[in-house]
Every structure is written in structure tokens, then in C-alpha cells.
Amino acid sequence: KMTQQMRDLQLAQARKPPGPSSPNAAKRLYRNLSGKFRVNYTSFDEGSLVGRGEKEKLRKSYLFQSNAALFEAVELQDLDRVQEMLKHYSPEELDLNTPNSEGLLPLDIAIMTNNAPIARALLQAGAKESPHFVSLESRSLHLSTLVREAEQRVNELMAQVVNEAPSADCSEKEKQLKAWEWRFRLYKRMKAGFEHARVPDAPSSVHLSVASSSSLQVTFWEPLRVNSAIVTKYKVEWSCSPTFSPLVGEAVIDKLKDLHFTIQGLVSGTAYHIRVSAYNMKGWGPPQASMPPFAIPSNWRGDDGRAPRRRGQAEALDHLLGQVKTVHQHCICHEPCKNQTQSRKHSVSKSLKHLFHPGSKFLKTLKRGLYLTAIFYKDDNILVTHEDQIPVVEIDDTYSCLLMQDFLWLTKVSCMWDEILWLRQCVTVSQSSCSCILQTRFKMLLAISQMQGLLGIQDLGQVFFEPIKDKQGNILIVTLKEVKTNQTFESVRWVPICKLQTSRKSVSSPEEPTALDTLLVSIQDKLAYHQRSSHALSPGLYLGYLKLCSAVDQIRVLVPEQLPNILCHVKIRSNPNISREEWEWLQKMASVEEPVPKEPETDRSQNPLFQELQVAIKELMTLVNIPLQEAKDFRLYSQEVLDFGDQVSFLLLLPPSDDVCTAPGQNNPYTPRSGFLTLPLQIFELGEER
């Protein structure tokens, strides 16, 4: 019956010719394909093909060769070639889960020859076992049939070779005989591998954690596979009973790139028991209970009752801005704003031509005053004017001292570049009552509008956290924006940064560099800062260190150079959720006299968060160059967990109250090592929002 099923399967696969039948054929195919692995079929010159039908025929032929080569690579246990093909072809292009003429899939061959590295690579790429093996008996019968038919074919060819006189036809039969002998040995090895295998052991470890008020996260590790076949899937079961009767639910996981699973839709406050079992071609192995044996879906906000800090903030700000616009809609500034929409319709490529217009008002040199420059960069190139100058416009030629409050105001304006015209017109109306206060800010808005008009770009990017000053009395405010589009702009001049730096050195004075000279010398650092400030943390729970220092006109916060939009931090764990039980423990620790959490030795092993915090605190103290013994005076901020979206949360470690903020002139005995900088608090807040 099984033989008849396989014959029917062979007829169903008749449209797919068999692959090379010998190692030599496979090697020839490898040589033919070796130069093509990194070339997608769409890279052929389509102009040389006659019609879509011929292109599709070529594509199918090319992909069939790849599919056949994959089977041969698995059969020959060529791990390097298998990995190369999986890297450069998608599972669909390789027909990864389409059986060959023998009813086998690449994963079947790998697991029955017990080749763990190849099987693991195939599983991570999405490979599956053949659906025709519905039972142990069907797999055994199929393997026996393959071995018997291969042996019969070998005997037939051997008899023909022995009885026939030497000829070209006889030479061909000898080649076929060698190919079938090789295949016969392969099938016998697969059959032996299946017969000697046993069900897998239980997963070596199963870790259970609370992911949210309605979900649990299960992380597990591979079992020990002594004398067993490769594990191809896992089963996660959960129940409200420690006997797992009845089951509440189960899930089969066959995508093994990451061995974890999140159980969704659970009831908050209910205890769930979890166990995991592994599967191979011999069946399901014994289950492994989780550690801890059960968990209760919860979140620290369950008892606290407070809404997330950021909930509704963006909507409230939009509503407030709308109210302000409504108040001003009947003033004289309202009419000019109607023309703003039309001006935005100019394409970037057309507007950038202003850079090379002889009437542009970009400055080539700086005099004593306040200026605005916009850095647009793409890879290692920056955008320059027709005179190979960075775009610079004047804000105020009589303003030689930039007040920090004016600069911080400008950084906030950078969050609404599209509203500059509206803001400028409204400030114009207001000047009659308080011109002294708004004069500088109005000139800033005017300079921004001029820069936007000359560049034809509304979004000027992010304001660098401090202006550049020189001894000549120049102050340069810098904005940074990365151009990621691959669009080519007509007549636009992109200049390599190194070339611009070299040409600037030839005309500048090294004894008294201007603000522009300083900008070009440090431009790589500024671009690195801009790129790093947009990086995001990976999901998880973090321990942050809050350290401030004050000056006459500002408060600054200590941040790492590699991630300046986040406080100094270390990662506690990958799960960002703080459960209700963990939050209660943190509150308990905050109420004791000793700031740093301590517990009796007998309780430590029962509290994973305690162990994780101990490790994180040691790592953080080393990072910011504070002796570990000083940590005894530090405290965990216990008022709330700082949530940044759904995937990142922070616990804060605070110095003693007198040391949270270093006052001007106060000595800080523990200076952080290199790799840190201090940002104005308002700049840090804006960077965090971005």
C-alpha cells in the first residue's frame, strides 16, 4: 500500500525532474551555480529576453537548479553550501517544503542522517518535515521501500554490467550503477538513523515570566539529544491546575529561530502552570515543568491605578495648538498662511536649484553676529551651495551673546518646522506690545524661513545641542538632517566631507579658527551624535542612573555618547514588564532603612528580580566609575516604573539626595570615564521624544 502511495506521489511530482543522481553530478552542478549564488534572477538583462513567458521559463529553470543543488548539498552533508543557498535564496525560491520524486524533503534527509547543524539551519529557514509521514509505521515502511527498490536497481545494473561486452552503453550503465550504489548507502543510513533514534528528552530548562496583565512569556532550551534525532518542534501547554487536567490551552511551535513563546489572552490575577515538551521523528518526549512552576499575569499598575504618564499627551498638545490657531485665525497673519500650502508643493529637486541661483543669500564668511547653518548629509557627503559652502544665513548681525533661553526656545521650534510661517506672522503682530522680548526670536523665525525658502525644504532636521562660538564674536546654530532617499536631484552638489574639510583648511587661520572652521573640524562628531540620538533601545527592562549638574542658566544631565537620548543605563532583562508581585517587593525594599535592596540569603534564590538587580547595579556602578561601596547610599526610585512604549521600561537608581544634582563649583569626586557627555535638560527631553 505504501509503495502504491509513493508511486502516486511520483506521478504527482512528474512535472519536477529528479535532481542529480550522483556526487559527481552534484559537484558539477555546484560549479555551475557557484558564480550565481549572489545574483538574483531579476538581474538578467531583460531587454535580451523575448516576452514575459521566456523570462518566466528562465526563472523557473534557474530556481529548479537551486532546488536540486540544495537536495544534493543536504545529501552530501555540505553545510557550507546549504548555508550559502539559504542566505541568498528565499524558501519559496528554493521550494524548501516541496517533496522530491522520492517523497522526501531536505529536512527529512538531514534529521534521518542525524546531521544536527544542517537540520538546525533548515529549521531556522522555515523547513518542515514531509506531511506524508503521518505515523512511525508509514515512515518506516517508506524507508524500507526506498532501500529495497534502490537495492533492486543496483542488482539489475550490476547484472547488466557483468553480462554486457564493453561499449559506450556499458560505460553509461557503470555510471548509473555507481550513482545507485551511492543512493542505496544513503537510504540505508537514513533507515538506520530512524531505527536507532528515540523520543527526545525533556527541554533542559523552561523559564516562565510575566509579560503583561494578560500574558506570560515562556523561554525554553533544547533537550540533551543523546542517541536521539533532531528536535523539530515544541509544544507549550498551560493549565490552572498543577496536574494539567484540564488543559486551558496549548501551542505547537515549529519556527525554532527563537525558543520562546508568549501566551496571550490570559485572565489577570489567575495562576497558570506551564510545561513544554519536544518532538522529533520518533514522537513527543516527556514534558518539562517551568521554573517557577506557575505565574500570575499582572502589571505594576494593577494596584497603583495610575494611567501611563504619556497617555493622551500628544493629543492634548495638538488640541492646545489648534485652540491657539483658532484664536489667531482672524488676525492679519492668517491670510499669508494660506499661501504656505502652495509653497510646500515644490519638489525637493526643483527647490534645491536655489542653491545654485546667483541671487541666493547664503553667506560665505561670518562677521560678528548670530547665524544659522543647515547640514544635510548622505553617507559621507554633505550638501553645499554653488560655491562649495555649507548653507549659512544670518539671524542677527548685532547679537553677540546668545542667551540660553533663546537657544532652548529655538530647539522647541524645531519640532514644528512646518508651522514657521504661521509662527512668524503671529510674532509680527505681537511685537507691538513687547518688541524687546520677541525681537531676537522673530529674527530666528525669519532666518529659518529664509533657509527653508532657499533650500526648498521645510524640515531642517534636529538642532545640535550647543551652538558653536569663536573669538571673533560669531555664534553658529547648527541643524542636522540625514537624507536617506536614493532619489537623484538635478544640479545638486554633494561634496565629500573630507574634500570640503581640505579646501577649508587652505583658507582658514589655524591660530584663530572661525565658527565655520570649528564646525568642519568637528563635523564627523556631530553627524555621529545625530545618528546615535535616533537609535532605540532593544525591548527590555533597564536600570538607569540619574545624575544632574547645574549652571547659572541651565541644568544638564549625564548621558552616554553612544545613546545620548537615554540616561546612563544597563539592561536588567529582556522582559520589560514589572509584575504586581515584583512591584510589591520593590515597595517593601523602599520602606526599609537600607537604600540598596538586601534580603536574607534564604529568600534570594526565590526572587529572580533581586538577583538581576544585584548584577545590574554592579555593572552600572562600574560603568559610571563609582566605587561599589558607595552604592549602599543609593536608592531605587519607587514611585513608578518609567514606561517608554510597550517594549522598554526603566527603574531609576538615584544617588543620595545631596548628590543628585551637582551645584556650580561643587567638586564631584567620581568623574565618569570617557564615553559620556552632559546635555541641557530641555535638549535631552526633546531627544527622548524623538
Spell out the blueprint of helices and strands.
Blueprint: H1 2-12, H2 23-33, H3 51-75, H4 79-88, H5 91-94, H6 106-112, H7 116-124, H8 136-163, H9 168-196, E1 205-212, E2 215-221, E3 233-239, E4 249-253, E5 260-263, E6 272-280, E7 283-284, E8 288-295, H10 301-304, H11 313-328, H12 334-337, H13 340-343, H14 348-351, E9 369-378, E10 381-383, E11 392-396, H15 404-413, H16 420-455, E12 462-463, E13 468-469, E14 474-482, E15 494-496, H17 497-505, H18 515-521, H19 523-532, E16 540-545, E17 548-550, E18 555-560, E19 568-573, H20 580-591, H21 601-604, H22 608-623, E20 635-636, E21 642-644, E22 648-654, E23 661-662, E24 676-680, H23 681-689
Parallel strand pairs: 9-14, 16-22, 17-23
Antiparallel strand pairs: 1-2, 2-5, 3-4, 3-6, 6-7, 6-8, 9-10, 9-11, 10-15, 12-14, 13-14, 16-19, 17-18, 18-24, 20-22, 21-22
Helix pairs in contact: 2-3, 3-4, 3-6, 4-7, 6-7, 8-9, 15-16
Quick overview:
The protein is an alpha+beta fold and 690 residues long.
Q: Tell me what portion of residues adopts beta-strand conformation.
A: 15-25%
**Mean pLDDT score:** 80
Gap between N and C termini: 66 Å
Compute the number of helices.
23
Q: How many separate structural domains?
A: 4
Poorly predicted regions: 1-50, 333-350, 353-359
